[in-house]
Amino acid sequence: MADSVFGRRLSRRTMLRGGVATALSLGGLAAVGACSPPKGAVGEPARKEPRPDYYPSDYGKLVEASKKEGGSLTIYSNMDSYNWEPILAGFMAHYPWIEEINTTNFDSSEVFQRHMAEASKARARASLLVSGDPISWRQMSEEDELELYESPEESKLPEFGKALPGVYVFSSDVILIAYNKLELSADEYPDSLESIARMTEQDEHRFKNKVTTYSTDSGFGLAIHLSYYRGLERAGKDPWAMYDRLLPITRAEESSGPMVDKIATGEYLAGYFMSSTIVI
Predict the structure, then answer these.
(1) What is the C-alpha to C-alpha distance for residues 232 and 241, in angstroms, rounded to an integer?
(2) pLDDT digits (tens, 9 = 90+) for 136-169
């Protein structure tokens, strides 16, 4: 089988090939093109609040020093600009000398590829990286590429909020099933992996290569599959039972964008383990 499963059928072999990665949280951030947002996707800007009393007494010096570093910031991320709007509006209200913040909407692995390519030429532009690729976070940590900043907010985070030294969980996102309502009848709309498997088994010819999910070549996809696998394992269930039913009819993609587009056009009829930030 080819090294890449992009646009190809998944199998036990390709799933196992990716199964050696660490299970970090699906979203992370560390120090180191826009489209219209869906209705209701942009919340109110973060409110300007006084600095909490648990911050270090000399924290103000850090803030004052930032005024000498220029009025712009660059964030390499796998989030669209509308996801950033309320965050950046609140940040710039607190720190008005920051006049411009540039964000990207790369795929999870491209965040690191771009940063490392620039860093190798001593031209690193990004101050902050946000990505759901746990493999690259682990690699960055092992290669001492991260600024080991300890946030005053660290004690307020949930247990899973600090994935690695210098890496904090940015958000906890729901993973979804998506389907084409025009191509499926109402009684076929899937609401679980079991319903997808049962539906496809009833008409395998119709659904062959018409269901999609993340490739395990994608760090984000691998984290999802590995989390599902280990969750079933901890529950004493056979992790392969559902995969054995789904993989023969599944074609893999490396990011949610192509999955959503192909479901919308009818090339795929359904997809599972999809990113809610893209689907919604």
Answers:
(1) 10
(2) 888 888 888 888 888 899 999 888 888 888 888 8
